[in-house]
Amino acid sequence: MGRVVLGSAVRTCLSNGQWSAPPTCINTCSPPSIPFGSSSISDDINPGQSASFSCNSGYILVGSSTATCQADGSFSALPTCEPACSPPTPVLNATYTPIQPLYRVNSTVSFTCSAGTQLTGNAVITCQANITWTAPPRCLRICEPPSAIMFGSFAPQNSSYNVNATVTYSCVMG
């Protein structure tokens, strides 16, 4: 914080024997620093003026992206820069939401498998404090039940089958 003269720094003795209006000293705000980020100003600013903020790569801004210099020489609430997860690794045969450039710690994404696949694992993963994601699911190809044969059946009878699963046919005595 510093101070600057507001108004004319020079006073003049007027013809009426009075001095011209005096200046006032106002507080200024020094460029704020936020860990893992930067501000748009490099010199002191006056009350009412604002600074904007951005975060370094791999960090996400929490709070307002601007702060205003107050009359007391301090800034309104400053944002913080928190570590963030990059988007999760794509999962074959799946999509996820929401899609964002970065994810805050404890945020989640939900995976949906494509038609003809079945989800194995958790559909929802979380950005952890160590800036890694919990284990992603897998979307494995599945087969619909095979066709029936005349005078026969197959086992096991399931609603779907994983790749490499087998069924065994047998003939019905008749």
From TrEMBL:
Sorted UniProt keywords: Disulfide bond, Glycoprotein, Repeat, Sushi
Signal peptide: none
InterPro entries, per the entry: Compl-Cell_Adhes-Reg, Sushi/SCR/CCP_sf, Sushi_SCR_CCP_dom
Organism domain of life: Eukaryota
Pfam family, one: Sushi
Annotated ranges, domain Sushi: 27-82, 83-141
Record's keyword annotation contains Repeat: yes
Protein name: Sushi domain-containing protein
